[in-house]
UniProtKB/TrEMBL annotation:
PROSITE patterns: 4FE4S_FER_1
Biological role: Component of a complex that catalyzes the oxidation of glycolate to glyoxylate.
InterPro entries, per the entry: 4Fe4S_Fe-S-bd, 4Fe4S_Fe_S_CS, Cys_rich_dom, Glc_ox_4Fe-4S, Helical_ferredxn
Keyword Iron-sulfur carried by entry: yes
Catalysed reaction equations from the record: glycolate + A = glyoxylate + AH2; (R)-lactate + A = pyruvate + AH2
PANTHER family the UniProt entry points to: GLYCOLATE OXIDASE IRON-SULFUR SUBUNIT
Name of protein: Glycolate oxidase iron-sulfur subunit
Keywords on record: 4Fe-4S, Electron transport, Iron, Iron-sulfur, Metal-binding, Repeat, Transport
Species name: Helicobacter aurati
Source taxonomy: Bacteria, Pseudomonadati, Campylobacterota, Epsilonproteobacteria, Campylobacterales
Length: 445
């Protein structure tokens, strides 16, 4: 045991403010699986504060406990003190990563997420070779062969679809309508920050957003050099890779931000990462490495003022509801929808009414626990703790099935991956559609 008090202000401040009321415990996602206070918000604050005070060392148990948190932020919404337990966990993961290092598979993944040219090539290759590796089952890819190493990583899970060309390869710069004669100075000028899963795997999400914006006579700009938001690296404690991506994005977006009225993100995790976690990451980097990020925090403030989740902006700042009033009602029995609230939309950004309003032409049935985490949890949970993701995902699949809906929707492709996997594993025959895909379909686009 060391007597040295480490300068870990974010961890210590939160732990000291906890009044031990336990309001955060019953709804905690990992507590619902383990039923153990060592993996619950209050327990996390206890062990992290003991570590911060030098009374506890980081060891395998500490690592296992902290890495079991889903970062769903449910605890933050329940806590009467609004303690930032998610930030405390993220901060502790940085020290875990510094002590244990980043596993090789993550290093490769994070390197690729920061190198679009190589990733474009790999995903195109994946498209052409996926029929050899994967077989289609109920419209989803599953591993075809029992290749031991691959089986270990992928298990029996549903694999995301591959596309021949990414969204950013299909669209770049100002789209055609801007250059057309109809362009007027009163038109809104909107940029799209797409997110990696919509860029590479669920390309129709971005395509739908472009079509909706063009139908609204908005000038659309696709910043071609946008980078990953850094969420996979941040949630794994890889702070240097995270801030490298954040700073590249901030420098790049600053070059054209003045020309835009807003930047839309059709992905809850990326939106929450940019609007909330980029500042946490920059502050953590300053705390751990003594780097002055003041200039980047200023750039970030300007960017966040103009950044919105796509559904929120469409609902609040366009005439889309008027268009939807004139669109057909799709209330037949084949189009019953249930909506899952991504944690990074409802709990962190408070966006949950907007997508429901935009889907008003469909029959909406609310599933039980629509705001309960789907169990995605990030790279570590999906790879090293997949049993936890399955446990939580099974409950979500059960609630979706019980709702009687034919389609489940959520504004998040990480939820889409996890929910599709859970539905197939539980033999629940419900399709997943992003709200933007449904809106575009409803508008006949
Ligand atoms: S973020 Fe979610 S899983 Fe982690 S402690 Fe809070 S409620 Fe539990
Ligand atoms: S709800 Fe907040 S104050 Fe109460 S035990 Fe949990 S973290 Fe502490």
């Amino acid at each position: 045991m060391s007597n040295v008090v480490r300068p870990l202000s974010i961890m210590q401040k939160s732990a000291l403010s906890c009044v031990k009321c336990a309001k955060c415990v019953p709804t905690c996602t990992i507590y619902s699986v383990n039923r153990d206070e060592v993996t619950a918000p209050r327990g996390y604050l206890d062990i992290v504060s003991a570590y911060a005070e030098g009374k506890l060392r980081i060891d395998e148990n500490f690592k296992d406990s902290i890495e079991s948190c889903f970062l769903c932020t449910t605890c933050v919404t329940q806590c009467p003190m609004s303690l930032p337990i998610d930030v405390v966990i993220e901060r502790a993961r940085v020290d875990i990563a510094r002590q244990y290092g980043i596993p090789l598979y993550k290093k490769i993944a994070f390197f690729l997420l920061g190198n679009r040219k190589i990733l474009n090539f790999i995903f195109s290759l994946g498209f052409y070779f996926s029929p050899c590796l994967f077989k289609a089952q109920n419209g989803h890819n599953k591993l075809r062969f029992s290749i031991p190493k691959l089986k270990e990583i992928l298990g029996n899970r549903v694999i995301m679809p591959f596309q021949p060309r990414s969204f950013l390869q299909r669209y770049k710069g100002w789209l055609e309508s801007f250059q057309s004669d109809s362009a007027s100075v009163t038109q809104q000028r909107i940029g799209i920050y797409i997110g990696c899963l919509s860029n590479y795997n669920y390309v129709n999400v971005g395509v739908s957003l472009v079509k909706i914006l063009q139908r609204l006579d908005v000038q659309v700009f696709i910043p071609s050099k946008q980078e990953c938001c850094g969420a996979p690296a941040f949630f794994s404690g890889d702070i240097r890779n995270t801030t490298r991506l954040i700073k590249k994005n901030l420098d790049y977006f600053a070059t054209f931000l003045d020309e835009l009225d807003a930047i839309l993100i059709p992905e809850a995790t990326c939106a929450s990462m940019l609007k909330l976690d980029w500042s946490h990451a920059l502050e953590i980097e300053s705390e751990v490495f003594g780097i002055d990020n003041t200039e980047y925090l200023k750039k970030l403030e300007l960017l966040t003022q103009k950044t919105f989740m796509a559904s929120e902006w469409l609902y609040k700042h366009t005439r889309i509801m008027k268009l939807l009033q004139d669109a057909p009602l799709w209330q037949d029995t084949e189009n019953i929808i249930t909506y899952h609230d991504p944690c990074h939309a409802r709990k962190t950004l408070k966006v949950f009414q907007e997508p429901r309003q935009l889907l008003r032409n469909f029959t909406m049935v609310e599933m039980q626990g629509s705001n309960v985490c789907c169990g995605f949890g990030g790279v570590t949970i999906q790879s090293e703790k997949y049993h936890l993701a399955k446990h939580v995902g099974d409950n979500k699949a059960h609630n979706i099935a019980k709702s009687g809906a034919h389609i489940v929707s959520a504004e998040c492709s990480a939820c889409r991956m996890q929910i599709n996997d859970s539905l197939v594993r539980n033999n629940v025959n419900v399709d997943f559609k992003h709200p933007l895909e449904l809106i575009a379909q409803n508008l006949g686009l």
